[in-house]
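Researcher: Structure for this, please.
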Amino acid sequence: MARKLKTVADASRDLISELPVEVKDRILECLPTRDAARTALLSSHWNHVWLQHQRLAFDEEFVQSFQQSKDDEGRTLVNIINNILFSRAGPVRRFTLEINAECDPSPLPQQSDIDRWCLFLSRNGVEELNLYLLCDVEPDYQLPFCLLSCRTIKKLIVQGPFINLPVNDCGIFSNVASLAFFNVVFNCSVNGIASSISIPKLEKLALHYCGGINKFEICPPQLEILSVIDPIDDYFDSRWLAPHLKAIKTLWLCGSSLSCMRVSMFPTAINLQVLKLYELDFRCRKQLIISMQLLQKCPNLCELWIMAYEFCRKDDQEAASRLLEDQNGCSFIQELHMLNTIKIEAFSDQSAVEMLFVKMLLSKSPALERVVIVESLRKNASEVVRKIQGKLECFPCASPNAQIVCTSNDYARVSEDWMDTHGVRLY
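Model: Predicted structure, token format:
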């Protein structure tokens, strides 16, 4: 009888529940947060694993599944997040929250909800935090101060809210290695005065569509990657960028930012190896001159990536003529001895300026190995590509090893690569 009871008990057990806790936790990582939460109903074993689970994602997929579910009628998104978050029996290492007023018709979380969640996370060991707070109506979210002073955060991605900068910089982002801000407005919290903030461990910094960048004064000694794309409602001061040029290895800029810069005050970017220019307008003489002056400041540059501004483009022979006149002044005075890779996307064979620009690069890059030209997607693309290839191969080239590849397959746009570099997803 005892033997029979043992057999029945064994038959009632499943192999998955007997897996080590580490393996079951890894299974939960592969599931959406909503499905991972439901595993707690399977058995006490899974409930224990779920309560100890350290990664929570209340992302767009979670919100959509919440809206479509009939099981949660009468419950709000805030209620569900509260129940899941505050039932944790251990630290929350990675947390993602996406609030989009256009996609979420349910009552939006209030600032007090955001504050409460962030305070809980800051006290429970959060290391990677992704906040996407997109709201064109009330409430206008602000980033809770507890996140600025949280000592466990190593990676922070923020989209949407205002950020009030403290005057006292003691302990601000003290252990953050990667920061990315999108559609964020920086404000000075006391009398319009912001002190310079030291972020000692910061290695990556991305600022995209941000306002008040000049108020976000930082001096990170270990910064290696810096991206500043399309600052809004703000004059992008060259003095903000200049202190970072000596140390960084990768720099992302956009054409509109170049128009505001005075490169003459820049130091030599001795460590800069990768320069990426987003939406460079080849019709704008100032952007071209500034970009070429910037190249003069990068003696050890290895890679140059350009995403050309392709809207309302037309041939501008006059601009090309002016650029030719400047060759003895503002163009390449010295060779780019270390440059081995050039990639230009949204390239137009109709633009004499772009052709001239590539011609100068070829003539001044003795170490060049690979040139990739991605043509703007148009009719008869294959014919246009052959035409571009033929023209470029006729240009004098300082490197005997340079290979020129022209394609119409826009397989890796600079904008997508930029987002992948910083591990973000924009709406």
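Researcher: Any notable elements?
Model: The domain at 249-421 is CATH 3.80.10 (Leucine-rich repeat, LRR (right-handed beta-alpha superhelix)). The chain is about 30% helix and 20% strand.
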